[in-house]
Structure formats: structure tokens, C-alpha cells
């Protein structure tokens, strides 16, 4: 990814390569544990019965970032793909961590500044379906990823994030020092974060390193591999300014989601989702509501299962990978 723009032809393949590697490892681990007598199941990007993000947070593998529905790890940043292995094997329980990411993301706007479709929020965190987070415009992001004609999907936010550094003993001294200070010197955050984000731009981090471009930009047309008509060749734009007041984010609250037992494509109402921004609580408003015993907003209530014909039989989803997954 050093040679990539983040939304060019290699981005989608590299993302899926990470998920595939995790699925392979989890599958081998699960088979090993089952051989030892412990029920185990790999929960992968392709087939999972659990939500990964809450488990990653509880396991202490990172914090939620401004990018939105993404857990950012303190040592590899957003360049982080998850896989889960569920088992009843007795294990030591980890805890969530706090390495100061909320302060960092609150004062760094590089990912939302560089987002090619303006899907990452410029403003503060909100309460979305009961969770405090920076809520991205997931429809706008998805639409761009699926219609990107000069690349496969998009990982521009990952590419440009200042914390997108692999920190290890073989790495550069500056990233290692900055990482150590960021994780251990929490009291220095107010002084370090502005310097870190400014220096990240000055060093040109997030730009393409063409020396490390190791692939050809090809696409498949009618079953034939041909040279692509073009590829996104974006560089960073430090001069660009974000304006939270002018940005419009669509919020698809729980009461706007399709029934959980409907597996066919479901149309979305973007105008209604834009209007739903007026219903969003701030974290402070949610705390005041809870302190006074107020009920949860109506839009927190999920759409119930349709059942019967509307729910395609009303039964659980069929696992396409067979009984053993």
C-alpha cells in the first residue's frame, strides 16, 4: 500500500487479501482447537455469526476512530483487518484500552479532509443507535466504493491516516518514538497532537511512493484482462480546509434498517436519512437523558423480523459454506 493512492486498482485486492489471510489462520486454529476437544468456529469477513467491532473493542485491540466504524490499532493504525475465532476454551479475559485516540481523532482531520467522497464526518461525535462515535455517511462511502471507475473500492482513509505506521523494532526511530509517546505520555496529547498532524503532512505521509508500486493497473472487461483506462493518482492536499457546518451526513437509524430476516437487496431512502440528522443526540444530551431516567429515542428501536413471506420464510439465514462453515 506504500505505492497506492488508497482508491486505485490495488486497494480492494489488498483489503481482501488481509481478510483472506485472517480466515486461513482462524480456520487452522479452529481445526486445532476442535482436535483438542474445544468447540470452535472461525468468524470471517465472508461468513460470521458475530459483530467484529464490539469484540475487537472488548479485546483491547484498539479504539473507534474518526474514520467511523473502524477499530484503529495503536501499532498498525487503521491498516487492521479482523478475524474472530469463537470457542469455549478457558482463556484469560482482556479489557478495552485507552491510548488517547479519541483526543487525537478529535483534533486531527486528515482522513476526512482526504476522503474522496466526503463521507467521513468533519464534526464531533454523535450518539448513533446508542453508541458514541464519529458516524460516517455509509451510503455515500459504499456508493463510491462500488462505482469507483478508476480503482477497486477505496481505502483512502487508511492510506492517509497519520497513525498508519507499522511500528516494530525494525522500523524507523521517529515512528517508534512518536508511537511510544502517543501511547504512554497521555498528558502530552494537547502539545503533541497538533505537532504530529502538522509534521505528518510536512513529511508527505499519505502520498504515493512510486518506487514501491509493484503491480500493473489492469481490469477485467468481458472476461479479458486489459490495461485500465486510468487509475486514481491522488496526493495529499494539506491546504484543503474542512467545514463541518456545510457537510450533510445521512443517518440510517435502527428504525430505518431492513428487517433482519430479509436477505434480498433493500432500497434506501436517502432524503429521509438526511432528515434523520435532526434526531441525532450528542453524547452530552444522551448523558443528561440517562441521568433523568428518560426513555431511549424511538429511532433506537430496530425494525422487527418480517417473518413469513416478507422474511423469506422467517427462518435463519442459510450458511452457504455448509454446516461446518
Protein architecture, described:
The chain is an alpha+beta fold and 325 residues long. It has helices spanning 11-35, 52-58, 101-107, 110-114, 138-147, 156-160, 173-184, 189-202, 270-275, 283-291, and strands at residues 40-43, 63-65, 68-72, 84-87, 126-128, 131-133, 218-221, 224-227. The longest helix has 25 residues, at 11-35.
Short key terms for the protein model shown above:
325 residues, alpha+beta, two-stranded antiparallel ribbon, 8 strands, 9% strand, disordered C terminus
Order of helices and strands: HEHEEEHHEEHHHHEEHH
Q: Could you tell me the strand content as a percent range?
A: 5-15%
Specify Rg, calculated over alpha carbons.
21 Å
Separation of the first and last Cα atoms: 31 Å
With strands numbered from the N-terminus, the spatial order across the biggest sheet is 1-4
Instruction: State mean pLDDT (0 to 100 scale).
Output: 89
**How many beta-strand segments?**
8
The 3D shape can be described as globular
Task: Indicate the percent of residues in helices.
Answer: 25-40%
Annotation field: number of helices: 10
The assembly state of the depicted protein chains is single chain
Helix-strand makeup class? alpha+beta
Largest sheet, described in full? Answer: 2 strands, antiparallel
Low-confidence stretches: 319-325
